[in-house]
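Dear colleague,

Thank you for sharing your sequence with our group. We've completed the structure prediction you requested, and as agreed, I am returning the results in plain text so they can be pasted directly into your records. Please verify that the sequence below matches your submission; if there's any discrepancy, let me know and we will rerun it promptly.
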Amino acid sequence: MKSILQREKKCFVCGSESVQDHHIYFGSKRKTSEKNGFKCWLCWEHHLGTEGVHGRNGHSLDVFLKEECQRKFEETHTREEFIKLIGCNYL
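Please find the predicted structure tokens below.
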């Protein structure tokens, strides 16, 4: 998996080695995430569990990952380039 946030196959949140890949910008932006490495590894709980990004209480984690990904992207690109890809600014 290509990721601008990670090199190691460990949960981005807790470090667990039992992980799934997560498209940080999903839905209509899934292909954009795939192409640009807007992905990270997450354990099941942080991915699909109640507190996970796709879980009932996961909104804050979802927003955190979106912010971190944008920060990393902007280390080598402009904010305007990011907005052109994703359609909004998370910072």
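Summary note from our side: The first strand starts at residue 19 and ends at 23.

Kind regards,
the structure core
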